Amino acid sequence: MAAEFVVNRAFLSSVFQEIQARLANVINYLDEEVVKKLEITLSSINDVLDDAETKENLSPSIKNWLDEIKHEVYELEKLLDLIDTNEQRRKGTIRHFVSGFINRFEYRIVIKELLHRLEFLAEQKDILGLQEATRDIHDTPIRNPSIPSSSLVDDASVIFGREHEKEEIVDFLLADSDNTDKQVSIISIVGLIGIGKTTLAQLVYNDHRIMEQFEMKAWVHVSQSSNLICLTRSILESFNSSTPDTKKLVILQYQLQQRVMGKRYLLFLDDVCNKDGNMWEDLLLPFSLGSSRSKVIVTTRDNEVASIMGSTRLLHLKQLEDSDSWSLFVNYAFRGRNVIEYPNLESIGKKIVEKTGGLPLALKTLGSILRTKSSESEWVKILETDLWCLPNSDNNINSLLRSSYLNLPSNLKCCFAYCSIFPNGYEFEKSELIKLWMAEGLLKCWGRDKSEEELGNEFFNHLVSISFFRQSVIMSLWNGKYYFTLHDHVNDLAKSVSGESCLRIEDDNVQDIHERTRHIWCCLDSKDGHRKLERIHKTKGLHSLMVAAQGYGDQRFKISTNVQQKLFSRLKYLRMLSFSGCNLLELAGEIGNLKLLCYLDLSYTEIASLPNSICVLYNLQTLLLQDCFKLTELPPDFCKLISLHHLNLEGTHIKMMPTKIGGLNNLQMLTDFVVGEQHGSDINQLGKLNQLRGKLRISGLENVIDRADAVAANLKDKEQLEELSMSYGQWREIGYSTKVHVYVLEALQPNRNLIKLTIKDYRESSFPNWLGDHHLPNLVSLELIGCKLRSQMPPLGQFPSLKKLSISGCDGVEIIGTEFCGYYHSSNVPFRSLETLRFEHMSEWKEWLCLEGFPLLQELCIKLCPKLKSALPQHLPSLQKLEIIDCDELQASIPTADNISELELKRCDNIWINEFSSTLKRVILCGTQVIRSSLEKILFNNAFLVDLEVEEFFGPNLEWTSLDFNSFNSLRTLTITGWHSSSLPFALHLFTNLNSLVLYDCPLLESFFGRQLPSNLSSLRIERCPKLMRSREDWGLSQLNSLKQFSVSDDFEILESFPEECLLPSSINSLELINCSNLRIINYKGLLHLTSLESLSIEDCPCLESLPEEGLLRSLSTLSIRDCPLIKQQYQKEQGERWHTISHIPDVTIS
């Protein structure tokens, strides 16, 4: 009850400020006397809110009184929004009449009714005994005037008192596993809530040593409601950077098993509390096929959970030592101030720190609270509060979080409470949440000297600084964006303080929705979508509706035009609407009914057009259309969306911009600007959009033929643009000077603050002068794609900040000479900051003469440059990855690189190695000469090699007696492709830790060297190896109990029946038969002993006549049959005559 009051008080206090400021603008609609009465009434109510906040136990009468006030204030705010929009129309800002708005006479009737109700509520304050707030002028606190404007996002690299624990975990992760009976090694970090388990795990996750050693990493937050399917999906999503398209557990586990097969992975399971041992056993089952050096990190509050999960090692986090506690507290409480200058506060602060018991969350929270307080009385008040001391339970943590919440400004309380609309574990971008706050009007009632986006940025950073928001590790790594989430306890707090205002509809239990609910997040599925929407329809005062799709493709609930018409006719006061990712093919014209709509998200839907009625949404600030790939145009009256701030067109196929888009001068985000054919002059509309920031992609530049239009675009003055892409399409004859595009691009000079630049398909003979070292000093990334240059490269070597340079498809370039380096001297080496350099598809490039510099280069790729003859830089001290692919004429030696870890040489037979580092972890070699000249040198004395691929070897057998293969304990994956020799150059059984072996297209290979396979092999794939297949009974597979997956592909008509009896070991759980053109019979006796077999896949076997008459194993959970025409009809679900023999298998696919 108290929590609900707090948010009521916060909401009312902030909204009162806004309403009182707006009343002066509605005199034309209301009697002046009515306006004055409203101001007096609202002020009278506002005066007693402070008194109510000080009461510890609120009576039901006060609670009801506050709810009534909040409801009436919502109604008043809604009416003022309608008046504002109508006033814009009256003044001519909006030219056409806004249908559905009531006239002035009706406004006055409605506002008088509201006034009467508010006056009645104001009179009740005396009956309820509420007093006006008073302040002691002698104890006025000295507060910072506002939330600090600097970024308050935590620096995760700064830690206090956890260095030893971090190193202990890193040592465990990097060490070879001594766990002989199982492959999944687990370390559990155990400790109290707020002790810093997640923070420590994140530090480990981002440690450079970990990033180098593990091939795959995944981070999953385990909420209390997580089940086996959800967790498996989340892990797959984290590994793959994409969402799985199924919810079937057997398919998910199979996909996960394939993903980790033979790989060294690192899995973080954060905040585990589930004690279901069977679930954890099933979850970890697919991971057994990964490398034995893989690891899992678990954070949990419960020792029992750590035990149930079979932890290899436990790390109990203790409270911080006194000195570390003080350092952490000072970092938050005195940020931006010198603690020495506040001796009185320092002494009080040390007493506060002592009472926290060394709990990091308590230290961060209290430090954040005290950062904005400078009076001793305020610090003493915190010191004397006992709710948070000696934290040892959820209740104490919740009290601590609530204390932090109570110290927020009123507007910020409302912004935080709004986050309760998000389900547990929901990950959001900063910009996304700020746009939502804007739509709800939560940023309007603060100072006018800053934009709403700037205020939202300050609010967001502050909530990060007090640990209400925490950065999500994985999402940031996928796409370079930063995502955030709420800890479960913080999410519970948001839900508590929001009361009835916010509602999440996540399951099938749909109850009646309270009439005063304002914000709903709803998950719809095909089963009960209509039933949920019927409940939502009744909530006429709804402000926010976020609809999430459940299921995939056509299985999702379809949001038809009929469904939309009902929504839009009843929910007329929506400020925010999201259909992102939903099954939406068309947007109903009734969208125009939502006069107050500020935020509309239609991303990832299949809409092909927008109705013109959307253009009457004069309050619309945000329109998101990302990846609406069928969308080709915007409606003709689009320029009437005068309030639009954010327009995302990324991934659409818009052919041209709407007329007069430059009139939308509030635009700050415009992802794409398309210059249409015959509309080249439209680019001058960019000149009117002076607030653009972030990233902008301009396409269709071949249509711009007048330099004056390019000058008018005024890119040079757009200081807040960080990323710019300029793209040309198919060039046409323009009948003018051939230099026209040079002049146009010269006139499109970007601002010096630009960070990333891409120029695509530019085909003139020279680049503009501004593409040089002095004009873009902050440029970090540059891509030149498909630029058909006919002369020299631009001088790029002296860009002081350039870290990534990619040059691709520049076919006209023959020589990259000294001009590429720019003008330099001994103290100013070329490319001094460059870390990644790529040359690709350079068909005419012959010489590379600029070979000096590159002191920090970590990655060098030269690919598909067939005429390149010379040369390569000879010394790259920081190089870690080198790729040279399809450079047949290149004659050069590999650069000296002491720390290189990855090497790929393909079809470049004239490359040689003088000396090479022993730090290589991954090597790919392709081509007979490369393998002959390089493989032995690379393998010699290399104890760190993990992954080796050799391809396309023709010639007599290789024998390397000088190599000590017993030293290759690190090798985990071996792939041999196109090996045209009768035997392999090494005995496979000597690679004792090899997990995965792939042999592909080796037609002459007769046997494994020594006829033995590694004892730890878990995956074996053999394709197009006919002679090897003939000797399969000599392989000794039946004794290889480590083998889990076996895949065979044979299009040489060797196999007619497979597998032979006892050919495969009983440990096999996945079997694939692919492209076996002569296979007729699946041998039941060969399967009978495979009691662990879970997945069977048969693909492209045209002669297969049937599956075993006896049926398939009961252990099977997945059966996939594709392109096997003779048996397709026999085994169709519930219709085929043999369906009953496989009907016990949970997941069957026949196509």
UniProtKB/TrEMBL annotation:
Name the keywords, alphabetized: ATP-binding, Leucine-rich repeat, Nucleotide-binding, Plant defense, Repeat
| The keyword Nucleotide-binding appears for this protein | yes
**Where does the Disease resistance protein winged helix domain lie?**
421-494
Where the record annotates domain R13L1/DRL21-like LRR repeat region, the positions are: 683-810
Which PANTHER family does this chain map to? DISEASE RESISTANCE PROTEIN RGA3, PLANT BROAD-SPECTRUM MILDEW RESISTANCE PROTEIN RPW8
Among the GO biological process terms of this entry, one is:
defense response
The UniProt record lists the NB-ARC domain at: 163-336
- The signal peptide, as residue positions, is none
Q: ATP-binding: is it a keyword of this entry? A: yes
- Domain named Disease resistance N-terminal: residues: 11-93
Q: Which Gene3D superfamilies match?
A: 1.20.5.4130, Helical domain of apoptotic protease-activating factors, P-loop containing nucleotide triphosphate hydrolases, Ribonuclease Inhibitor, Winged helix-like DNA-binding domain superfamily/Winged helix DNA-binding domain
- Give the molecular function GO annotations: ADP binding; ATP binding
One Pfam match: Rx_N
Name this polypeptide is given: NB-ARC domain-containing protein
